[in-house]
Amino acid sequence: MWYILSGVLGAVIGSFLNVVIYRLPREGLKLWDPPYSFCPVCGHRLSWRDNIPILSYIFLRGKCRYCGAKIPLRYLVVEILNTVAYVAASTLARDLLLLISLFGITSTLIAISFMDLEVMGIHDGLNISLFIFSFLFAWRLGSLATGLISGAIGAGVFLILMFVKKGMGMGDVFMMGAGGVALDLFTMDIAILVAAVSGIIYSLFYHKGFNMKNTIPFGPFLAAGIAVGVTIRIISL
After folding, report:
1. Both 140 and 233 in a single domain?
2. Which end of the chain is more exposed for a tag (fewer CB within 10 A), N or C?
3. pLDDT tens, 3-27?
4. Domains: count for the chain
5. Domain annotation covers residue 74
6. Residue 173: inside a domain, yes or no?
7. pTM score of the predicted model
8. Using one digit for the tens of pLDDT, what is the confidence trace for 125-172?
């Protein structure tokens, strides 16, 4: 029953993450204004039956009920990913504080990843959220000092890389610093390695070759690295 509740919560929060991903980087839109969901194509206000996480997308066959416009697959993927992440977190966390911090870290990483893929940018608000939940996670593990040092080192490394690779921005630097607080020096190394390798593989396929001048959305790869590092820390408890 607990896993079912976690999955349902994950799906609901995943639906909210789609709102965050769409509205946060766009001028003239706020998370709370307008206070309802709408079709980004026709602007029609969506009813409750259009907003059931995962199920509405399937029943509507990925199209708006009112104008027939195609709903991006991202909406379904985000909801499913967050559902799976919450179920996984509920199996790993040993207490409520750890669970809340894991929920917050994973949801923020998912939002950052898909926002960066869409607009090639990471909103400061999401990096602040990542820092808060990473801080909570490190505090619960009794490794806050180590986490702050790891975060500072991670941010420093990426600050240097930003000047070497022009396509990397301050959002990536802040993200590594914020997420690094949840890690220690060992898992920080792993996170950077995972991010670098996965980013290179993406560049090889997307740009048909690796070039330091290629600009890629690095947030998803940083998110993967941080997620791997956090998972290792939880499993090793």
Report:
1. yes
2. N
3. 899 999 999 999 999 999 999 998 7
4. 2
5. yes
6. yes
7. 0.94
8. 999 999 999 999 999 999 999 999 999 999 998 898 878 766 678 899
